[in-house]
Structures are given as structure tokens and as C-alpha cells.
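Write out the 3D structure for:
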Amino acid sequence: MFQRQDLLVLTSDDLMILSNRGLVKRAIKELESGHSYDLKVDEVGTIIVHWSDAIECILPTNVTLNQSYCSCAATTLCRHILKSVLAYQQTVHAQSSPQTVAGLSEPPSPNPDPLSPPEFSTWTTWNPGEISDTELAKYYRKPDLNRLQKSFNSGQVMELIQHQKPLAQFHSLPYTLRFLVPHDIRYTHCNCAEPAPCSHVPLAIWGFRLLPPGQTSGLVETATAALAIPVNLLDELERAVSDLVQTGLANCSTTLIGRFNRLISQCRAEGLVWPAEILGELLGERDRYLAHDARFSPIRVAELIGELCIRLDGIRANTGAIPQLLIRGSKADRVTEIGSARLIGLGCGIQIQYRHFKLSAYLQDADSGTLVNLGRDFSQGHSEADSPQPFAVLARTPVKRGIAWGDLGAGQLLTQGGKLTPSHELILGRAKATLNPQAYHWENLRSPLGIEDFAELQAHLQTLPPACLRSRRITDSFQVCRVAAVDSVEFNPVDHAVVAMLRDHQGQGLRLSHPYTFRGQAGAEVLLTQLQTLAPDQIKFVAGQVFLKAQGLVIYPVSLVIQRGHSRTLLQPWVDQTGLQIPNQTADPTTTPENSDIQPLAADAPPVPSNSPLASLLTASLEQLAELMMIGLQRGNPIMLQGWQEIEQWGQQIGFYRFVQPLARLMQQLEQKQHSLDWSADAATQTVLEIAVWLHLAQNLAIA
């Protein structure tokens, strides 16, 4: 039998992309129920299927499924065409197996699990860059290709992964493109509104050609001319940061604040979007300090200065190792107005920070696929009268009238307006919004969400530079992963967390870890119980922040979709209320006890075990650095010097000799200050900034 490779490599998930989940499930069900058929393949590969219900389907070789013929009344891709593809796949598989099926009156059952690919698929990695320009000319007019080539040369940033289903994720455009069939651009899927093959296919193909030989994934920047380096602006930024370190955030003058405001405007004019955002956050921290806001974080000040120095060095060096648009920010990274939108809730979680925490809800725009975050900061109190409020109680705090945070993560939000910041934080303002329930059919989420292959996810994370050298979108590390099975569920006393191993359809593992905290113990208990009692295949999806660590992929979940019969429910382990006695009175969202078991963590960092010597060293170093940046080098005193000496000795004891070298140099410079009347702070300032860079990189690389 002539084998149609374009149809044999299509999985059930691919068919869902080309049509919809309901049609594919119905086609599988009808084929399983014993619908008989007569299938013929002619010498050129045209497939003709006659079904027992008098329906005829014809699948020619030179057209896509959307253009195939069916005698039913449907005007678009119908279930009969899908059923014919599945029947053809099963027929070829049966004839290729040792036990060949003699007749087709009793058709072999298709694989009922849409996660499992056909066993006869070659499933080899291939490179879309091998598709020739001659092939592209068959589907695009020459003026269109010239226009696309100009757009390509002007500068696009793509993340490319060669795979069985190669992926091109544009960082300069809000689109993700996947190739479904090897060397056939008719079978591509993009989250834009254009029909396939869309205008982004040539851009992706040309991008794949730029990958170095032997490299199967990576970041590619397509600009033919290098971006100009604004040397004068970078020098002025470094001088302003140095002055801030010398005087201290608590003592900086209005003149220095005015310089920072002017630099923000200049950065935006030069296209330095992310440095401008960092400067804005620094000024925001100063405003919190002056207002005696409990949410003020001196550690955050040190982190921001460290990140700013790293980005300025990356812009100045311009080695080409990392696309400049990632370091600087692009034109797409700006405040944008959004109109009416339907946002699908993906869960609500907690980000634990210094002396406060952030309640965050993640949502995806159902039309564009844009992932957004709604967040609110809650301060931790300091008086003994403050009573600890469980996170589940705080999740009852309203986002808008009639909409609580916990419900927002589990429903779908209909809004008639709002603003989206460059970091993808959604500000609703006074826009009208309503909340409706959802059925948790997350198979229909827009790309790039809905990870099915954990190996592909790992390849994606391996291509990314550290967080301090890429987009500052707070949703970048958020993923929704489809789960085939769960095993190794336990409470880990070392990490003080609920852990489990999630498996995809190929058996690849993703480690789930959820910290057991005093205020979130109700949700953690529910999570542990559900993971231990549910069948391994009842967990359908897990959503959360994903990191690549020494032990492999780790996800810190904000939600899990659980299948119970024909219905699905959502478990949000941070804010789940099951088994929690919630008081009738409205929760006070402003205070929590100082002696809570929560450890201060960075905003987008995973929980780090408190018993890690390295984590403790980095935390102590960051706190000491934050204190110095608050009071300034000019006001440094012997007590501060003693603190650095203790940290330097600690680092020596655990063997971090290179790390303590700048600490020793700083101690020597601070000691000189005690014995000199004309001491210059310039050398010490550079050392402080070097330490800030070291500490921020250590956080980003999650080496703790």
C-alpha cells in the first residue's frame, strides 16, 4: 500500500489543532464503536474511504485535509475526514505489524489516548531550514517574500527548537509557530489570525537556517546591522548608579532623583526599555521607603541595582551571544491599552518576598494567547497583635466587586478594558469586568502554553539566557503542562515540601514541588492527599513556574486540573479552602505575623531550602549589601565592616574562595576609610557593584 507520510505523522493532537477537540473525540468514538468501512489507496496515494453510513471521503495527495472531499453536508473539516485519517493510520499500522488484519469489516481500534502518538510514526528530529526558497515560492508571491525578507533583515528574535514537531517562538512578535508535518509548510500552526501557511512561516524557516551546524535549538537574532551602542547614555547611567551607592537610597537628594527621572526618558527614547523599567522600580522603592510602607524591601533595591549593572554591561559589550532586543527590550515591550477580552484563569499563587508577599493570578487571552498576570502586594505586620491569616482567607479579598482572587484563578474573566504593562501585568482600573466559570478544557489553550513533551520544555529552557539578560515579563517562566501519569508522591522533610514526579506520554519526568508553609498548610495538605489517592491518569494538567535545576525540570504549581468522570475541577494548592474553617468576617489583608515560618524569597525565584549553606550565605550577603546601599558608602561604619568580615569568613569555611575575593577587597577599602581623611569612594563603589552582579547572577542561575 502507498504510504502517505503527511497523514501518518499527524497525531490526534495535531488533528485537534487543525479542527477542534470535540470533532476528534467524536471521530475516535465512532471508529471504536465498530463503524465499518472500505478503504482504498490508488497508485498516486489518493485515499478513498466508503463508510457504512453511506458517506464517502476522498483525500487527494496534493491538497491538505481542509481541502479534502466529504459527501456530508459540512462545509469545513468534518469528523468523517478525521475518522478517515485515523482509519488509514490504523490500517497501515496493522499491515506493518507481525499480526496483519485480514479484513476491514472489523476495523482495528484507534489508540483511545489522544496523548499517545501513532506507533508507526518515524518521530525523528528534522530542520525546517532545509525547506528551500523554491518550495516557498509555490505558496507566496514574490512581492510578499521580498516584504518578509525586509522584515527579517530589520531584526527579529526567535527561539528555535528542532524536534519531531519543530517550534519557532518569536520574541519580537507575539506569535508561536509549529511545523506539524516534515517539509510540508501547508501543515503549520500559528497563533496568528492568518490561514496556513501564514506570513510567519518564511521568517521561521530563514531563522532555522541561522542555527549553527549540529545545534538543534537556540536563540537567533536576524538583524543584518548591529544596533548602535549609546555609550554616552550608558556612562551617565553608571555614574548615576555610582552616586546612588555612595550616598545611599535613604540619603539621595532631589537632584539625584531628578537625574534618574531624566535618564528614564532618555532610555525609552534610545530603546532601552528594560533599563528604564528598572530605574522606575528603584524610584518606586524609594517612594515606599519615604512613605514608611511595610512593603518596602531594601533587598529588592540591591537586586535591581545588580540587574541594571548586568544589563548595562551586556548592552555595552554587544558580543552577539544574546540578542540585544532581549537585553534592551523591544518596541513590543510597552504599555498597551486592551479592549474587550476574555481571559482564561490558569490558577492563583503566592510569591513570597521580603516582609511581604504577592498574590498573583495568571490568565491567558483566549483570542491572542497573551499570558498576563494580575497581582496585589500584602504586607507582613510586626506587632504581636497581628494574627496570621491563611492564604486561603486572603484569596477571598476582592479584585473587583464580586470577584475574589481565588475565584479569578479558577474562572474566566470578561473585561471591557485595561492596561498591559511591559512586564505583562494587567491593570484593570475602572474597566467593567465579570467572572464566569470554565470547564478546564486546557487542551484548547493558545500556544505556547500546553506543553506536551517535557524534553521539548527542557530544550526550551536550555536555550534561554539568565533572567537578568532576557525579557522582564513576569509570566515568562509560567507553563501549562499536560500530564500522562503521576508517581513518587511524598512529603520531603529536607525541602519541607510536597513533591511528586509527573510524566508525559513518552515517560519523561517533571518534578513537582510545593512548599509546606504555616499559612498555606490547608492547600498543601489537600495537594498531598489528592496526589496520593487519585489514579495516576486523573491529573490532566499542571500550571506553574518551571525552572531547570541540577536535578532536572522542576515546577512550582499554582493549579492542577483533575478529571473526575466526565467533569474536571481545579485545585489551587496555595489558596485552596478545603478543610479550612474560614471566619465569617472579612479578612484583613494587610498583616501577617513576623514569626511566620515563611522565608523571604525573590519575587520570581523558587523556594530554596533554608538548610542550604549556600542559600544562607547568599541571603546574608544580600542583606548586608542592601544595608550598605541604603546608608551609602560615605556613611559606612565599623559595624558594617564587621558584618562583611563575618560573611567573608563564612565563605572561606564552605570553600567559596572566588566569591569572597571581592568581599575581601571591599573590607580592605572600607578599612582604609577609617584611617584616611581624603578617602575616595570610587574604587569601593566598583567593588560593591561587582558584588551586586555576583549575587544577582547567583539568584538567577538558582545554584542554591
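Residues 298-317 form the longest helix (20 residues).
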